[in-house]
Amino acid sequence: MGCRKIAYVVLPAMLAAGLTGGCAKSVDNGTTGNNAAQQPAVEAIEEPDAVNGAAGETAGLPTDDWVGRWTGPEGLFLDIQPAPDGKPGHYAITNKDNLDRQGDYGGVAEGATIRFVRDGRDMVIRPGIGDETGFKYLAGKKDCLILVPGQEGYCR
């Protein structure tokens, strides 16, 4: 009966050790388990179209650099903004080309120019210098947009 007594004492002790062996306290380094309270990592992307673009592909059109307000003499101006529909190469243009008129137009990039229609005439905006505008006020300026050489232009 001595063996039987040892088995009753040793066997339950071995079972208890085996069952509680997996219950040892582990170190939680935060890499596993329920991390539902943590905010997911969000990648900030400045240009959504650049995500799938090729590495050597340019980010935009040369005419995209023209976005903003360009000034002429006596309060005249040319304001170029991205089109509300968000299409690349499309622009919303506000132009005060004389003292009595200000109009809004839709423009489309064509190479290194922007085309739009004003008063039934096809207009082309192209880069130039102040001397090409025909205005003494803009002479000597280097960052300009020309609509009608010698008659209409705007500079920054």
Give a verbal description of the structure.
The chain has one helix at residues 2-20; strands at 68-71, 77-82, 90-98, 101-110, 113-118, 121-128, 144-148, 152-155. The relative contact order is 0.11. With 156 residues, it is mostly beta strands. It is 12% helix and 33% strand. A hairpin with a 2-residue loop joins strand 5 and strand 6 (121-128). The protein has one helix and eight strands, in the order H-E-E-E-E-E-E-E-E. The model is unreliable at 31-45 and 47-58 (pLDDT under 50). It has an eight-stranded antiparallel β-sheet with strand order 1-2-3-4-5-6-7-8, with no helix packed on it.
Please sum up the structure shown.
With 156 residues, the chain is mainly beta.
Short descriptors:
single chain, 156 residues, mainly beta, 8-stranded antiparallel beta sheet
List the helices and strands and how they pair.
Elements: H1 2-20, E1 68-71, E2 77-82, E3 90-98, E4 101-110, E5 113-118, E6 121-128, E7 144-148, E8 152-155
Antiparallel strand pairs: 1-2, 2-3, 3-4, 4-5, 5-6, 6-7, 7-8
